[in-house]
Amino acid sequence: MSQKSPSAPLSAQSDVKGPRRSPLAVDVPVLAGIVAVAGIWIWLYMNLQVFANWLAYGVFHLAPTARIGMAVDFFATDVPKIFLLLVGIITAVSVIRSYFPPQRVKAALVGKGEFAGTVFAALLGIVTPFCSCSAVPLFIGFVESGLPLAVTFAFLISSPVVNEVALVLLAGLFGWWVGLLYVGLGLIVAITAGNVIGRFHLEDQVEDYVYKVKVGAVAEVQPTFRQRIRDAVAYSLDLLRRIFPWVLGGIALGALIHGYAPTSLVVRYAGRGNPFAVLIAVLIAIPLYSNAAGTIPIVQALISKGLPIGTALAFMMAITAISTPEMIILRKVIKPKLIGIFVAVVTVAIIIIGYVFNAVV
């Protein structure tokens, strides 16, 4: 988040003599542009399948029942669909997120009781998703504010687990009920793990220097709505640039699975008939490094072949919550014993959720 400079910007100085413009004010050109772009986005999204069919069966003259035809159709549908979802909805989410800077999140959590604070922290983690590179400064800021470890870990689990990219893609590819289920499961994992970790009273497992750091208050600059839109678009495009290679790789692998993987093979080794499927999926995910957006097309293809959704969600949540890179980053602020307990608690919670969801759906 940008810090306020000692001297006010020129735009702010020019407003001193005139009426102050509300940060929430929306001018007519901005509103007209949003409406026009939204209309184009909706039209493109509604015609994705038409484009995919034209490309696979009209341009390449592939047979709809051929394996290569199904793979190309899958790829041609999912690439523009995920592109539109990322650019469109992530921009909207980023505008909303601009109203929840880290300092405001931290202030909202201070003073809550441990259990209520844990629930509130997990909820805030959904609407204020921070990447793993933000984990260390956020952890330091929370500890410096006197927040219990239960509250701190509930937020740090919820924030990456309930990833806005994953939510948008799950909702777009499988329906909003799956997206909402993903959010609910992430909340359960964060609240449960946070409270369990809090019961161990492991404050001594936080690196000593964290308690000595004093995080100063940062004055917030209130941008206009136009600036929020501009920043959100820039963030979405930068995010797209960084993760789209993973997305393309995931879609390509998903297309191969969709077109060529035998359904009987997936059902045999990862279907409901294997009582260890969820456990194996979570254990495989822990050492992996993969962007959530890149795993979803693979999960989509596996589900189409018979993989239960609970197993798929457990695999994806394990990658985002307890992957090795996340633990390496957290090692900067917490000791190995606490990392081990954190991984164990979250792993058990994800496995239980996977089995429960497979049993009821």
Secondary structure elements and pairings:
Elements: H1 10-14, H2 28-46, H3 48-59, H4 67-97, H5 102-109, H6 114-127, H7 135-144, H8 149-161, H9 164-174, H10 176-199, H11 208-212, H12 225-260, H13 263-270, H14 277-285, H15 292-304, H16 309-322, H17 324-330, H18 336-360
Helix pairs in contact: 2-4, 3-4, 4-9, 4-12, 6-8, 6-10, 7-8, 8-10, 8-16, 9-10, 9-15, 10-18, 12-15, 14-16, 14-18, 15-16, 16-18
N-to-C SSE string, H for helix and E for strand: HHHHHHHHHHHHHHHHHH
The structure class reads mainly alpha
Mean pLDDT: 75
**What is the overall shape?**
globular
The number of domains is 2
Number of helices: 18
Radius of gyration, CA atoms, in whole angstroms? 23 Å
Q: Which blocks of ≥5 consecutive residues have pLDDT under 50?
A: 1-19, 215-219
Terminal Cα span: 42 Å
Tell me how many strands there are.
Answer: 0
Largest sheet: none
Kindly estimate the percentage of residues that lie in beta strands according to DSSP.
under 5%
Fraction of helical residues: over 70%
Describe the structure.
By secondary structure, the chain is mainly alpha-helical. It folds into two domains: 27-97 and 223-245, no CATH class; 114-213 and 261-361, no CATH class. Helix content is 73%, strand content 0%. The chain has 18 helices and no strands. The chain has helices spanning 10-14, 28-46, 48-59, 67-97, 102-109, 114-127, 135-144, 149-161, 164-174, 176-199, 208-212, 225-260, 263-270, 277-285, 292-304, 309-322, 324-330, 336-360. 34% of the residues are buried.
